[in-house]
Specification:
This protein is mainly alpha-helical and 178 residues long. The protein is built from 7 helices and 5 strands. Keywords: ATP-binding, Nucleotide-binding.
Length: 178
Amino acid sequence: HEIFFQVFDKGRMEDAEGRLIDFKNTIILLTSNVGTDLIMDMCKDPKLMPDVEGICKALRKPLLKVFPAALLGRLVVVPFYPISDETLKLITRLQLGRIGRRTQQNHKIPFSYDDDVVDLIASRCTDVESGARMVDSILTNNLLPEIGQELLRRLMEGKTAKRVHVGVKDSEFTYSFD
């Protein structure tokens, strides 16, 4: 934590070669999962959602267990509220839209998906600490490899796909290309 004191107090620091690095016009964002369970517990009931000040006050003790008071005194704590299911589904749709644009751009074929795909992805994003990053992980590790392999296989066989459609059957993704 000592390196932060130098940056926060003097607005500068030295790198490994002894060069002075200026931080005077810099915003530094630090993230932590400290207090995640506490925030989740406080935000269980949307009707009783605490305000930012209430969450910050409740986070003080857990933060002091991890970070020195001198460091916390130089920081502004900005708590994040849990991601709602609606927001998670919106993020999923945005990411699927990116896949659709890539499919159209690179292969000149349309991409579509059932609403069940969005629901299945959202249901697999239950780890609070991963948040919406899990959406990207599911798409990168599940959907994209399956779609890519099939498009490449067809290309090697001299066939073309007319479209890419993703659905769900028995809680698993299904794919159709014709």
